[in-house]
Request: fold
Amino acid sequence: MTAGHLASLERSDKSYLQKRKGRLKVSGVNSALIVLAAGKGTRMNSDLPKVLHQIGNAPMLSHALCAGAALAPDRTVVVTGHGSEAVASAARAHNPDAVTVLQEPQLGTAHAVAQAAPALAGFAGDAVVLYGDTPFIRPQTLMAMAEARRAGADIVVLGFEAADPGRYGRLVTEGETLLRIVEYKDATEPERAITLCNSGVVMADAQTLMALVNAVGNDNAAGEYYLTDIVAIGRDRDLKARVVRCAESETRGVNSRAELAAAEAAFQAARRADTLDTGVTMLAPDTVYFSLDTVIGRDATVEQNVIFGPGVTVETGARIRAFSHLEGAHVSRGAIVGPYARLRPGTELAEDVRIGNFVEVKNATLAPGAKANHLSYLGDASIGAATNIGAGTITCNYDGVLKHRTEIGERVFVGSNTMLVAPVRVGDDAMTGSGSVITSDVPDAALAIGRARQATKPGLANKLRAHLLKLKAKREQKES
Ligand code: UD1
Ligand code: CA
Reply:
């Protein structure tokens, strides 16, 4: 990986997508993703639309879109309603090709799916319906549903055995066949005793799905157009429906702040396990926090209490030491960061760079072998190969109005406590004296010293001390 390779959600999504596409095109299946995200989420008690609340520093909506990317969708449609503008722009930020449609008013899940019809006009292939507030559906699960479609099911519904079925829709089955789905509000007592529940995820041929949702009515306890009714309607049309099962943990939805916090914990736990599986050493995995787009290479080491904000890529063999905070940063192989380092957006560390304790880096590149080991701020800067930044060095990048760049060449020795007042350039093989305030460019191989000259007065320390002791004695006499 080279400069500027900050893993964006979209990009990691795309490479994943390309890998999957290769696989799926073999069987010739096109697919479209429909994400329902119109609901209000009243129980969040928030001005922010529910699907924009974050898990792993990414909106819940992004999690659903990432899950759906497993199918390499040719079209992605996001159904918006409450907070539609904000939801639509988050969808496009994640995937610029996503189409957003407005559902207004919100008359139920079938009505929501029906809004996707114009966006799927002329589309031949399968459609899968996901909820924007159900972030944990695994790619493997969607692949299993696609498999069931290929095996001949017209409608595939994702179900799960619920420990506490509560108000979930119940799946009425006969052997492997799904007969119908009954919503809790409309269910009889024997139906409520069913523990196999509806996750909401549905897969079917896109045009079949559109025809089915158009046939759904709203004569039920909620007066809503239920997507779940497509199973019984399909059965009347000789369509076969099947259930694919997943773990209840995958279908976990988020309806309240408490559930959001629990979802965050579940996300972190899953990420820690995945990260260990991919060959990363973690000394105390429970103390490390990831973002949805964090990428860490094999044989990297992550010490205790490290936080990965959005946009971090760590290459193989790098070491992130304890108590470091990283965001928008790329760390190349062999680099060592921390303990107690802060990498902010735009940080690019090349091979074998060292960033030590209490060093902050922002919008700066460090070339191979460069070192900043202690107590520094490096902002809006480029630092050449094998350059050593002395303790306490600061790039004074901000004049109160504008930001300016500091350019430091290769093999430079920046003395401790140097203030580099940007814009300023220090040439290759140059040096700066400790405590210097560098305000003008330093040519290659020059030594720049910018500080007051030292004056030394022999014996004066003893005289001064005697004087001070006398003062102290006088003061004590007065007080007693
Ligand atoms: C739905 C299912 C239920 C299932 C449960 C799983 C129906 C009728 N019921 O119930 O069988 O067990 O999910 O969580 O489908 N939405 C819209 N527009 C609307 C209505 C909903 O976009 O008009 C979106 C919501 O934002 C949400 C999702 O669809 O993301 C599900 O809606 P919700 O009201 O939570 O459905 P449930 O009543 O939970
Ligand atoms: Ca719900």
DSSP finds ten helices and 33 strands in the chain. The first helix runs from residue 9 to 27.
